Amino acid sequence: MMNLPPKLVASLARMGITDPTPIQSQAIPHALNGRDVMGLAQTGTGKTAAFGVPLVAQMLDLVNRPGPRGVRGLVLAPTRELASQIAEHLKGLVNGTQLKVTVVVGGQSINTQIKRLERGTDLLVATPGRLIDLLDRGAVNLKPCTFLVLDEADQMLDLGFIHALRRIASEIPKERQTMLFSATMPKQMNELAQSYLEKPIRIEVTPPGKAADKVRQEVHFIAKTEKTELLIELLDKHRTERALVFGRTKHGMEKLMRVLEKRGFAATSIHGNKSQGQRDRAIAAFKAGDITVLVATDVAARGLDIPDVKFVYNYELPNVPDSYVHRIGRTARAGKDGIAVAFCAPDEMDDLKGIEKTMGMSIPVASGRAWEVAAPAKPAGGQRRGGPKPAQGKPAGAGGQRRRRRPGRGKAAAKAAA
Question: Hey, do 6-204 and 215-402 end up sharing a CATH topology, with the first three levels equal?
Answer without folding.
Answer: yes
